[in-house]
Amino acid sequence: MARTSMKIVYKCTFEQAQNKVTNILSGKGFKTTTIKTGETVWKKGTGLMTAMQFIKVDYSEKEILLSAWIQAGVGSMGGGEMDLSGIVGALPKKQLMKVLEEMKRAFG
């Protein structure tokens, strides 16, 4: 699995952190879904016009681990995961990186 990861430390309560993450991601058009691996992730797009964007959010005590990647192809017929480096899929990668940065700023 090729994913870009980022850790965010939070000083608020778990519920407040979870609400911030949910508000940011749902406000950006992401929806929760369960992927083939059984993981619950946030997903944006269908792959029809541009690559699908994914963010997995794992919470631990006072820390959030974000894992982000894109996947080209339509729906479940999509290709493999691609981390946010490199030039293939540059536009959706850049858009997804901006979402991660916004989340980081929200907890700064």
Please explain how this structure is put together.
- The structure is a single chain.
- The chain has 108 residues and is of the alpha+beta class.
- It has 2 helices and 6 strands.
- A hairpin with a 2-residue loop joins β4 (52-60) and β5.
- The radius of gyration is 13 Å and the shape is globular.
Radius of gyration: 13 Å
Beginning-to-end CA distance, first to last residue: 29 Å
Counting DSSP H or I runs of 4 or more residues, the number of helices is: 2
Taken as a percent bin, the fraction of beta residues is 25-35%
The low-confidence parts are none
The beta-strand count equals: 6
Mean pLDDT: 92
Described by the principal axes of the CA atoms, the overall outline is: globular
What is the H/E order?
Answer: EHEEEEEH
Residues in helices, as a percent range: 25-40%
Which class do the helix and strand fractions yield?
alpha+beta
Report the major sheet: 6 strands, antiparallel
